[in-house]
Amino acid sequence: MLKHLREEGKALQRWRETGILLEAYSPGRPGAVLILELPGPEDAHAHISQLPLSVAGLIETELIELHPLQY
Fold it and tell me: Which domain holds residue 36?
């Protein structure tokens, strides 16, 4: 598990460097909330499925597409 966590951190750092990962948060318990900048949900699913913890089957993910607030 520790190896997967280190690799996950490296992958997220690469995403931050390339502009894919805009923000990352801890919910105060196991898990994470990631704000990604990608063309669409298919791209997000493709990226997320390649994260080390996803590949290892150690996490479940939920994708929520965000839209600008109109007021």
Answer: 2-55
